[in-house]
Fold this protein.
Amino acid sequence: MEVGRLPISASQRSKLIAAGYTTLSSFSSLSPSHLARDLKISDNEAAEIMRVASHSHRLDGSAGGCGTVNGAQTAWDMLHEEEMFPRITTSCEDLDNILGGGINCKEVTEIGGVPGIGKTQLGIQLAINVQIPVDYGGLGGKAIYIDTEGSFMVERALQIAEACIEDMSECGGLLRKDSQACQLKMHPNNILENIFYFRVCSYTEQIALINYLDKFISEHKDVKIVIVDSVTFHFRQDFDDMALRTRLLSGMALKLMKLAKDFSLAVVLLNQVTTKYIDGSFQLTLALGDSWSHSCTNRVILYWNGNERYAYIDKSPSLRSASAPYSVTSKGIRNSASNCKRIKMM
Amino acid sequence: MANKQISQMGLPKSIANVFAARNVFTAKALSLMELRVQNEHLAGHLPTHMKGLDEALCGGIPFGVLTELVGPAGIGKTQFCLKLSLLASLPANYGGLDGHVIYIDVESKFSSRRLIEIGVKSFPEIFHRKEMAQEMAGRIHVLRPASLSEFTESLQQIKVSLLQNQVKLLVIDSMAALVTGEFEHGAPRQKTLGWHVSFIKSLAEFSRIPVVVTNQVRSQSRDETCHYFFQVQSWNETIEDRTRHDSHLVAALGINWAHAVTIRLVLEAKSGQRFIKVAKSPIAPPLAFPFNITSSGILLLSDDGIELTGPDINTIHCQGLSLRFCWGNLQKNIKWMPKTTIGHY
C-alpha cells in the first residue's frame, strides 16, 4: 500500500516521500524514534503516523482475500506510485516524447552510441535537469555522477547549468510564477554543489563504489539519479577471463537495479559501441555483450542519421520503438534545429 | 579534494582506509570548479596560440585528459606537437606553463632544429639569446622507445618523474606506430593497448597535465559499415555508400581507442587546403579551421571556424595535399647556430 493513500496531512506525506518512504512496508518495521529522526519530526508525530498506517493497512485488507505475499506490491499500488514521481526531462521535447515524458525513476536506462554522439552531454544534462525544482515540474533532487573515463568537464556543466536557469526563469516569467524566490535558490554554483562526482580508475573501484552507493544514498536521501559514464570503459581493457567479466557485470547490474528500486531513483548507464559480425557483415552494437543487454530496463541508442543526431528506443517494457532527433548545442541537449524553425545560434 | 566527503561520513576506519587506498574519492562538482580556477594555471588549459582553436576549446588543450591528433602523413601532426612542446616550456609571462616536457618520439620525427626555428620565429626575444634558447630546449626530454615493451617501461618511469620534476606536458608521437607491426590485426593488439590507455589516462588525471597523442590513418576497408541493425538500407544505397567510403580514411587503432580519447583533433586536406577540425570534445562545437604550416609553426587562416554538422566532422580527407614545405633561411637569423647546410624538401 503506498503512502499517497494514507490519511495523513500533506506535509507529513511529503516528508515521508522526500525521505524515501513510498510504501507502508518500507517504514512499518521501523521504530517510531527511528522514523522521527529520519523525518525530523517529534516522536509522537511519528508514532501517530505509524498507527494510522497500520490501521489503514488492516482496513484495506489483503488483496484478493488470500493473503498478501510479504513484501509484494499490487499492480494498482504501483500505478499510483508511478504517478507520484515525475520523469526527468532531457530538455529535448522530441526525446522526452519517445521516452514517455523523460527518464523514469525506479528504472535502469542504458544509453549507448558511437564516440562523439553526445552521451556525456546527455549525462551532464540529466544531472542538471534532476535538480529542477518541484514548482517547475522537476524532481528537485541531487545527482551522483560516476566518471570512469574522465570525460566530465566542469566548465561544460557550468555552461549547461546557466542555460537551464535561464530557461527556467523564462518559463517562470511566462507562467507568472514567483520567480524571485526561485531565482535566489538557483544559482549555477548551487547546481554544481548538488552533483556528487566520483572518479573511478579501475573495475574494482567501480564495483566497490556501486556497492558503497547503498550507504551513501541512505545518508543523502535526496539523490534522485545515478549516472555512470561509462559503464563499459574499465571492462573493455584487458579482461582475459570473460566468464569473470560476465559474472561481475551481472552482479553490478543487479545491485544497480536494487538501488533504483529501493531508493526510487533513476539509474542511467552510458555505454560504448563495438562492431559485431552478424549475417555476413559487420554491424554496430552496444558493448559488453549479449548477457549485459538483459541487465537494463530500457535501452536507448544514439546514432547519426545523415547529418542529424537521433535517439532510438531499442528496448523498453512500456515504450514503443521510435526515433527522435535531438541536437547538442552550447546550452546542452535541445530540440534539433530543423524541427524548430529558429535560426541555429552557436 | 580527495576523501573530503568520505571522511565526513564517519565510516568505520577500515572501510575509509580501503577507499583511500583505492583512490576512490568524491567531490561536489562545485569544489572541482573552485579548485581548478584557484590552483591551476590558466584554469587548466594550455593555450595553443591559435586564437580560433583556443576559443573553441575554452582556453586551449585541457589538463588531465587525453587529446588526440589524427591525420594523414605529412599533414602537420608533428609540427603541432613541436609547437606545443615549446609553448609548455616557456615562462608563464609568455603564456607557457614554465615546465618540462616529455616527448616520446617513436618514429624519430623530432627535429631540434625545427624546434629552434619555430622558437625563433614565434618568440624572437627569447630565442635570440643562446642561454635562454638552451634553457627552453633543455626542458624538453625526448625518449625514443624502440618497441612496445620499452615504451611500457618508460611509462612506469615517467610516472615517478612526473612527481619529482616539473613536467607539464606529455606528448606521444605516435601511438599507432608503437602498435603497428607488432601484432597481427585483431584481438591481441586491442588488449595490450587497453592497459596503456588506462595507464596514460590515469597519469594525466592524477598529475593534472595535458597529454597529447598522435594517431595515424588507414583506409576504410570494404567490410566496414557504421550502421546499427535497425538502420535498414536498400541495396542501392549500400553500393553508393561504399564508393563514398572508399574516398576517405579513418583513424587507426579502432573504435575502442576512439571512445577512450577525450578530445580528438582531426587534421586533413581538402582540395589542397589543410584543415584542423575539432571532431570530438565535451565542450567545443564541431568546427573546422583552415591552416597552413609556416616557419613559426601552424598558422590558422581564419579564427572563425566553419561549423560542420553531422558525422562529416569525423571523416578524414587527403585530397590535393602536396607534402613539401621549405624551412626557410635558418642560418641567417640565428647567429649562434653552427653553420651547416639545410636541405630543402
Summary: The two ends of chain B are 52 Å apart (CA to CA). Residues 3 and 24 of chain B are 7 Å apart (CA to CA). Chain B has a mean pLDDT of 76. Residues 64-308 of chain B form a domain with the Rossmann fold fold (CATH 3.40.50.300).
